[in-house]
């Protein structure tokens, strides 16, 4: 695929308009977008990727804004860092949540050239959105942003999958969560590197902190490690309290984020997370390619006829799948 | 694959112990289980498959028990129907929710030979659980149960995917849901054939009914249809109120379930849902087969070497996937 060399060069040079154009190509799954990503990939691997997930109503968007502001205006003589924010909404198009969040976001952050914001909504398959998000994050990484924050709306498996693509995963909760939603939360806590109780001025914050610490204890049993004699330091996810609307607790949160990055680098976990992220991406792309190749190699009528045989219970779905995918004699990888 | 012919015959004859043994084989993804399912598939397609999903804490399990009891002991001279219940827990193994629900369930339903209960927990990949659930439901269908109720714990995408495999999908809510969780609910409401507000004696039931009706209105815009002149009757999901702990509203719910089955049969939607379910299953099995064939045809070292090239940014993940899956010269479907 022939790409305008200009586009790739302009993105690497940090120009905003070509970057926005590239992201649209990537979101639309356009071949030029993929070709540009192929060339840009050599420039990736420098940004600190931070996933932000957690319950709806926890004030995630406001907190992400505050993190971005703190990174732009560091307190103690540290250098300011450039920040890209990707807001992903995998829920139904008729919720409208992303649009509302964006308006608040624009008011706080607009006009700072060191901040770039992109919203992505689901337009069909969840798998498609996850793939597009991966591409968008790679483009922002290649464009030279120090920090890429990926925020997901909602708290389902899709959000967890997207958040897991990061070096550091923040899980945001609000006080007063009921016992009934622990089932959802348990899965999310397992992926948390840093836990944040936002709205820490609301009632019930102490019991929420206690409940989360208890659940973390289950997920990260620190006691069992004292017998192994391992010298690798273990990361115990801190439980922090913030009030995003009053900018309280934000500096401590940014400090924890930086501490986690330092931990990842010191232990080799940074590279391990990179590897596992790229492996997942490669496996998914292989699946897509295998499926594309298969569809191109088989007459659609044959699929329809086989499906009709399944519908009339002449063959089972498994037998049908076997028939439609005879093992291949050999493969010639390039 | 050679299966003990006995197993298949015993399951079709309605024997319980061989059925339980088959379900274990299916859950463990054992080749004998798949071979038995292949033979049993000709006997499927008769059960009414009902998916039950909704928020944790809505009292789903108690309600499912009450539905089963009502189907076993019908009020007005109707025949009793046999019922299989499949409880699926896709959340993390350490939530323990399924075990608790089972204990209550056993107390209510144990000893009735017309009821069969099976719990399934996630042991790894969500995709694996969804596939196993499909197989378990097919076995129960072939075993001759009139009704198969598939209940999922939690409210994420995985649960929605599992519930969607049914002819009729019940979405259960409790009163007093907050505005903040509407994002999750919106996606679930889209798949509801019948909406149930359980715990209808709790405060806030009227506003919850109002909110759900308003959201349904968005998802099923009935007004727009009045101009099309279509003569196909449209199914408007009813919003019902129940108190499972006091067996209130259960007969009305069973009536709505039967009305929905009659609607599906009258409009041809029953067959359409069957077809789309089998098509999804076939596509997923084809993906698994393609992936298995690919892994069998390619040296693992080559995958590792290619991944290393991606890690060192020599080639992009997309280029790597292309290299590892050269288009195939031809395929010989059996």
Walkthrough of the structure:
2 copies of one chain form a homodimer. Chain A is built from 13 helices and 7 strands. In chain A, helix 2 (16-27) packs antiparallel against helix 6 and helix 4 packs parallel to helix 5. A 7-stranded parallel β-sheet of chain A has the order 3-2-4-1-5-6-7, sandwiched between helices. In chain A, strand 2, helix 5 and strand 3 (115-121) form a beta-alpha-beta unit. Mean pLDDT of chain A is 82; it is low at 92-100, 179-184 and 222-229. Chain A is an alpha/beta fold and 334 residues long. Chain A folds into 3 domains: 1-43, no CATH class; 44-267, Rossmann fold (3-Layer(aba) Sandwich), CATH 3.40.50.300; 268-326, no CATH class. Chain A is 51% helix and 12% strand. Chain A has helices at 5-12, 16-27, 31-40, 60-72, 97-109, 126-142, 157-163, 182-189, 205-219, 250-267, 269-297, 300-311, 317-324, and strands spanning 48-54, 83-89, 115-121, 147-152, 168-173, 194-197, 239-241.
